[in-house]
Write a structure and sequence with these properties.
Anti-sigma-W factor RsiW; 82% helix; membrane; 2 strands; transmembrane; 4 helices; 149 residues; binds zinc ion; DUF3955; mainly alpha
Length: 149
C-alpha cells in the first residue's frame, strides 16, 4: 500500500513520538525508505523537538555555574585576603615581641623591621577585606532575594 507524502507528514509526529500503531509505523518506515523528502521532514522533527530543550537547559546550567563561580570567586578572594592579612599581622606582632625593641635615650623607639607599622597595615587590610567580604555576601543575598520575588 502506497501512502501519499501528505498522509505521511500527518503521521510523522505520531511516528516520532512512537504513539502510532505498529501498522502505521511500518507504513511510515516503508515510505521513508524510498522518499528522501519525508526523511528530511523526520529529521526536521528531530531537530525541532530536541535541540531547543537541550540548549535551553544547558544555557541555564552554564549560567548558574558561572554566576556561582563569579560570586564564590569574589567572596573567597576577600576571605583569603582576610586570612592572610590576619596571619601577617599576627606574625608581625609575635615577632616584634620575640625580637623586642630598644628605647633610645632620646625617647625614640627602635625596632629592626618596622614590625609595628607593618602589623597595623595588615590589620587595616584585614578590616578592608572584611568589609568587602560582607559587602559581596550582602550583594549575593540581595540578588537571590530579587530573583525569588
Ligand atoms: Zn514522502
Amino acid at each position: 500500500m502506497k501512502l501519499s507524502c501528505e498522509v505521511i507528514k500527518d503521521l510523522l509526529p505520531l511516528y516520532y513520538d512512537k504513539v502510532c500503531s505498529k501498522e502505521s509505523a511500518l507504513l511510515v518506515e516503508e515510505h521513508l525508505a524510498d522518499c528522501p523528502q519525508c526523511r528530511d521532514e523526520l529529521q526536521k522533527l528531530n531537530m525541532h523537538l530536541e535541540s531547543p530543550t537541550i540548549s535551553n537547559q544547558e544555557v541555564k546550567f552554564m549560567e548558574n555555574i558561572s554566576e556561582k563561580w563569579k560570586k564564590d570567586k569574589r567572596v573567597s578572594f576577600t576571605r583569603g585576603s582576610m586570612l592572610i592579612s590576619a596571619l601577617a599581622a599576627l606574625i608581625c606582632f609575635v615577632s616584634y615581641n620575640l625580637i623586642g625593641s630598644k628605647l633610645l635615650p632620646d625617647g625614640t623607639l627602635v625596632e629592626p623591621f618596622a614590625l609595628i607599622p607593618i602589623g597595623y597595615l595588615f590589620i587595616l587590610l584585614f578590616i578592608i577585606s572584611l568589609i568587602f567580604n560582607l559587602l559581596f555576601l550582602l550583594i549575593a543575598k540581595l540578588k537571590k532575594n530579587n530573583k525569588k520575588s
